[in-house]
Structure to design on (805 residues):
């Protein structure tokens, strides 16, 4: 995700998109491009293939000015990865899983001759606007530590499910940081600026981006600890049945997805009584790093009102919480179990 | 400098073109060497031209041994080895030729072809990057590579080379249309429309090229949901080049998508009248969409005639049988419908649901042969044992045969397999009523009322 769309007094060509689709509509493990969630901050930029360029600059010895042809003709990597909006609701559908293809970011940074003192990069999109009511009109940007940029999974992606990226998903190229919340996977990428420890990230503070996508924990009354969001927390969501659905008494298959930013999903449990008792769901395939796993649970539904819940656990033993941490004072990482109410008759 | 520029000389140093062991030591003087080289070169060229690639390669190799700095000999050797499908030595020879003559684009162009043949995409990319750096302004090179890569379905790389062609500023309209077509394929509709309409407006461009451009613009407008513009451009494409089949097919497809079946029929008939039938390919490209649209436009007899013609010409066309069966069903001829579906299941036994469709068709015959329907369903079940539809139809058959207990069993299985389909609940409710189980009947019909269609619309 790239956060909630701020209100802007500027006239815009098209409104920023905010779309997601019921997880129920996803067959198999891969989200089709027309079902991929979209969260924009600003209007989609009008980009031409012929004139689009990606600059790599800052603390590098050989700044790069790459065309799309240059990107396509570089060695690429392919990876299945889930992207989740940092503000995706518990049980929400602002999460999608796709096969991505692109040039490893580390390859481009090495080619540009990244300096030894480099600590982070700023990724800048071609979309721009006012993030905050009082901030200037600036391109969308995010800052990512060099360590994550150099990971083999991080890339400049130009394909989604073996097709070029749809415009709404960042055509012609976007950053992709598998395992991290989607705000860092900057769409319509146009500039990568390598920064040293003391360098001020251009546009980051001025736009107000430093004030959003933060984890705010009230450690004691009046005292708050603020840290930047990054890794996706372990989470699962029920794709079917939908909330408030009426079902006949029958043997139903509860279906859903589970994912985590670090490690692998080890298991998913289902409760059909609001969290009092839990039973294991079946993972439909072996969990892979960065992607989600589809699960199912055969439920002999008896007449009555039921509250269904799912909870995932990863291979490090991290379990999806039943409730939101009361100390959290922000609207992100909503990874707690979402109740799904069903009336069975 | 990038890795690209470094990589080929590095490979060359490692390979050195030919190993010393490949060459017989020569004791000829300078003049004799030159004469022998020219003789070998001529002979190799003649062998190559007459399709004797092995001998050609041997002679070029000997020539290269005599004059190890001859790019011509290594290039010829590369061509001959490639033509003989000996790709690794072809690649080695061409890399040597390029290293000897780095200002010549031909070894690189040929290296792309050899690496594609070897399915070595990393090497293809390496050579393409070298070509881009060495010959950034060579429009012919980049458009030629784009064409070749597109023919080999390497559409990403074809697009990259087309974009490099565009950057040369060339005005070659054929290559510009190819770029627009690729842009349309990869979803860059705005770029495709801009490039295509530019060509459409060029007074000196050939009509066939302008027609192709109009076709691309039409398809891109359609993808952007601008159907009127799409239709306008495709009509222009037909007007500019009435013998281009694709324009008719694309326009008809647009009409079909918009459920304007009569318009689709008219376009396809216009196409058939304009384009002579080739004895080799027949007229099947028009026949299927024409047959489909005639049936959907309720011109059943004309549709049946066209589809029967298609089945005679191309009996493997599964969709023709399905549509023909639909035409027979819509005109109340279940025997012919059943017969058509049986032919389909004979030709394509794995066609999805063909036996279920046949069973359904048999149920509309008068009188119904219930035993035959049950046999058909049993056949269907061997292929898809967990198909809820099979149990549902079986339940209906048992119901019609007054075999209510068996109907209950079948319908309960249908519900177990597909609990969200209301049909089996309704049928089961009726069956319970027949059995005098009124409580069960009302419970079952109540359960049906609880079913709600799945949401598929986007959430905002």
């Amino acid at each position: 995700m790239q956060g909630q769309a701020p209100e802007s007094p500027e006239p815009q060509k098209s409104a920023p998109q905010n779309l997601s689709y019921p997880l129920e509509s996803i067959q198999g493990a891969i989200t089709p491009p027309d079902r991929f969630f979209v969260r924009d901050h600003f209007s989609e930029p009008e980009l031409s293939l012929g004139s689009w360029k990606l600059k790599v600059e800052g603390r590098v010895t050989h700044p790069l000015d790459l065309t799309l042809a240059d990107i396509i003709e570089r060695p690429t990597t392919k990876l299945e990865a889930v992207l989740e909006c940092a503000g995706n609701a518990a049980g929400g559908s602002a999460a999608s899983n796709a096969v991505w293809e692109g040039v490893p970011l580390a390859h481009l940074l090495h080619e540009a001759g990244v300096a030894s003192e480099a600590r982070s990069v700023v990724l800048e999109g071609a979309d721009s606007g006012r993030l905050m009511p009082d901030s200037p009109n600036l391109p969308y940007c995010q800052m990512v530590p060099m360590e994550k940029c150099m990971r083999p999974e991080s890339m400049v992606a130009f394909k989604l499910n073996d097709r070029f990226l749809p415009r709404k998903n960042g055509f012609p190229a976007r950053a992709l940081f598998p395992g991290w919340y989607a705000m860092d996977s900057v769409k319509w990428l146009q500039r990568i600026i390598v920064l040293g420890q003391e360098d001020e990230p251009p546009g980051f503070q001025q736009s107000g981006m430093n004030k959003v996508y933060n984890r705010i924990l009230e450690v004691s009354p009046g005292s708050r600890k603020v840290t930047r969001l990054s890794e996706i927390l372990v989470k699962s969501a029920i794709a079917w049945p939908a909330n408030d659905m009426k079902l006949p008494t029958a043997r139903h298959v509860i279906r859903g997805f589970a994912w985590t930013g670090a490690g692998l999903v080890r298991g998913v449990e289902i409760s059909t009584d609001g969290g009092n008792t839990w039973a294991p769901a079946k993972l439909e395939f072996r969990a892979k790093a960065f992607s989600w796993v589809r699960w199912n649970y055969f439920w002999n539904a008896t007449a009555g009102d039921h509250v269904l819940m799912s909870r995932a656990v990863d291979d490090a033993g991290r379990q999806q919480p039943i409730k939101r941490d009361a100390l959290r004072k922000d609207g992100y990482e909503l990874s707690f179990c979402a109740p799904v109410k069903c009336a069975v008759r | 400098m990038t890795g690209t520029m470094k990589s080929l000389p590095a490979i060359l140093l490692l390979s050195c073109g030919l190993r010393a062991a490949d060459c017989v030591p020569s004791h000829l003087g300078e003049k004799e060497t030159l004469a022998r080289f020219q003789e070998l070169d001529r002979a190799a060229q003649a062998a190559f031209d007459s399709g004797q690639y092995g001998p050609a390669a041997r002679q070029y190799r000997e020539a290269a041994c005599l004059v190890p700095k001859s790019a011509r000999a290594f290039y010829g050797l590369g061509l001959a080895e490639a033509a003989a499908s000996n790709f690794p030595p072809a690649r080695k020879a061409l890399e040597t030729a390029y290293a000897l003559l780095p200002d010549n684009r031909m070894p690189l162009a040929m290296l792309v072809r050899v690496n594609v043949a070897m399915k070595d995409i990393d090497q293809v990319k390496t050579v393409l990057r070298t070509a881009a750096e060495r010959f950034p302004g060579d429009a012919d090179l980049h458009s030629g590579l784009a064409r070749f890569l597109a023919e080999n379905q390497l559409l990403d790389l074809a697009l990259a080379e087309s974009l490099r062609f565009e950057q040369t500023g060339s005005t070659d309209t054929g290559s510009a249309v190819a770029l627009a077509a690729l842009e349309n394929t990869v979803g860059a509709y705005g770029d495709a429309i801009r490039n295509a309409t530019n060509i459409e407006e060029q007074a000196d461009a050939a009509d066939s090229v302008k027609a192709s451009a109009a076709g691309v613009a039409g398809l891109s407008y359609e993808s952007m949901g601008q159907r009127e513009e799409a239709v306008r451009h495709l009509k222009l494409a037909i007007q500019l080049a009435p013998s281009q089949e694709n324009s008719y097919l694309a326009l008809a497809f647009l009409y079909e998508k918009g459920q304007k079946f009569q318009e689709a029929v008219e376009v396809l008939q216009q196409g058939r009248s304009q384009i002579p039938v080739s004895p080799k390919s027949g007229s099947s490209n028009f026949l299927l969409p024409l047959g489909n649209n005639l049936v959907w436009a309720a011109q059943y007899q004309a549709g049946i005639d066209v589809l029967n013609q298609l089945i005679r010409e191309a009996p493997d066309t599964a969709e023709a049988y399905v549509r023909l069966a639909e035409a027979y069903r819509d005109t109340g001829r279940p025997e012919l419908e059943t017969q058509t579906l049986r032919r389909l299941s004979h030709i394509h036994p794995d066609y999805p649901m063909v036996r279920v469709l046949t069973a359904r068709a048999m149920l509309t015959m008068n009188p119904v042969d219930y035993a035959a329907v049950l046999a058909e369903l049993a056949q269907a079940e061997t292929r898809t044992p967990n198909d809820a539809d099979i149990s549902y139809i079986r339940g209906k058959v048992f119901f019609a045969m007054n075999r209510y207990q068996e109907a209950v069993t079948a319908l309960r299985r249908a519900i177990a397999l597909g609990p969200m389909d209301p049909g089996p609940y309704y049928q089961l409710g009726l069956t319970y009523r027949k059995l005098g189980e009124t409580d069960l009947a009302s419970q079952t019909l109540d359960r049906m009322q609880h079913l709600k269609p799945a949401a598929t619309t986007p959430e905002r």
User: Anything to note?
Assistant: Residues 235-344 of chain A form a domain with the Immunoglobulin-like fold (CATH 2.60.40.650). Chain A touches chain B at residues 18-22, 24-25, 46, 48-50, 67-70, 72-75, 93, 111, 159, 163-167, 171-172, 240, 242, 245-252, 343, 345 (CB under 8 Å). The first strand of chain A starts at residue 18 and ends at 19.
